[in-house]
Amino acid sequence: MKLKMIALVPYILMLLMYGKLPDMAQTLKADIALLNSNKDVTVTEISNSGNTESAKKEISIDSFPKWETDKDDTERIQRAVDYCLANGKDLFFPSGGSYVLRSVDVDAGLRLVGYGATFTLADNQPKFTRMFTTENRAWKSAKASDYLIFEGMTFDGNCWNQGPFLNYEMEQQFGIMYMGSTDGTGMLRGKVISCRFQNWAADGVHIYTNADVEVTGSSSINCFRGGIVASGSPSNIRVTDFVAEKGEFGKAMDFEIDTAAKMNLTVDSVRAYRGVDIELSEGSTAKVEGLTVVDSLTTVYGFKDEITINNSSLGHLEVINATNTTINNSTITATPSTTEDVDGAYVWVVDSFDALPKEDYYTVFNNCTFVRSDKDNLVETGKEINAVKGYFGKIALNDCTIGKGFTKGYYGFGVAYSYLTNVFFDSDTAVAMQPLSWARTYQVVLDNVQYGENNSVPYLFLDYMETAPYTIVAFKNMTVDSTKAGYAGAEAIGTTKIESSRIISVVADPTTTSVPGFIGDTARLATPVEGQAYEWVATTSDPIAATWEVSKQ
């Protein structure tokens, strides 16, 4: 003990020299407590520790008393953080603990654990306040860092006491900020485990440059820009088992990268009652699995990125400037509106029309289902509700189902190339095509398309190209009943070239009764009569009664 007290003499002299007697008393109290603690902390001081070895590595925040000169808990936690970093300790916050702070600098290799502890941002903090941040200690190395871990903590942004924020006035206030230096190739690694983010004027956890971060088993509510937000690259982000509750405002997640380097995003098992935005830097990759978005919008901006969404249940979906976006085995649920037309999925190109050839803007839906939120009791709103609407580029639907109640199942508004294969339409209008002079439609292919009982218009022509090259509409591998062989908008076919080889099932000779069809269609008796004609070929197109001739076969 004598040697330990001697070790404090230089520090005491320094304090006396500068006349900081209140701080001296507090420092002596804290340092003597630490020196006398033998192994720094006893096992009984730690909770949520799985074993004795883990407990020996942790030290409680209670070992760091608050000084009289501390404004709040910021300085106390900063002293504890610095001690833990210097001594290889984890910092433990007891359950039920409540801490008010401004901003604390943290670094790689630190673990903060506080199951049941709450950290509240002090009132009236500046716009650029980050509760826990690495920005002043950015990892810079050729090697990846040790992990910076936050576990079991609740981060409260106290947004209602920060001034106006709902118009992005405080968009730089974060609960946690992970930021590594781009001067080194090694990434700052981090984990956020079983944490909660609430009431933030901007972001819960924010990932910026040169960071490799996993957020798992966590939740958020009332985070204006998002519970999880990323704006920088290079970065690797993994989000698993995350729940974003509805609350009063905000988004669930917002990945909006403003830097040029690539990023890799993985999302797995997320339930969001608020919107999700994915806007990555060029050349990036996103893999989404098991994302459930309830009554909110999912936005994907996929220019020169590879984005894949699997086995998900989305609300409304907007895909912008996508060049390689694929949605597999997912459900898109559209909520009708009484004030505006809505789309379940809107796939479009904006501001980048000449950046790439039209066919390079490509979005594909595989084995997807499109439904209305009120499918069990459809409500008439007086507004259109379309399952899929496209503008510009190339869109494919494979093995998809369009449920009942939609005004249009697929609406190609200036889409250059549309490929609909093995699609079942139960919407009022199955397919609508509208070429535009500035967004030309070159080809629409319907391959083995089928129609449900609620479909009244299998195909709707809304316009045609006045100059070559003209639109081609092709019907392939299709057998339909005569009641589903018609179309609407005959006057708008114009220069459109129809290539059709449909088999139309009829109950009588189409030369004696009205059967609609396109040139090239074949009408075939459902029940042939021996010795009589049973197959006819359409020589003209007509939505009500085409001209039919007996097949030479």
TrEMBL record:
UniProt-listed InterPro entries: Pectin_lyas_fold (IPR012334), Pectin_lyase_fold/virulence (IPR011050)
Keywords associated with the record: Lyase
Native source organism of the sequence: Trichococcus palustris
Annotated GO MF terms: lyase activity
Keyword Lyase belongs to the record: yes
Gene3D superfamilies: Single-stranded right-handed beta-helix, Pectin lyase-like (2.160.20.10)
UniProt-recorded name of the protein: Pectin lyase fold/virulence factor
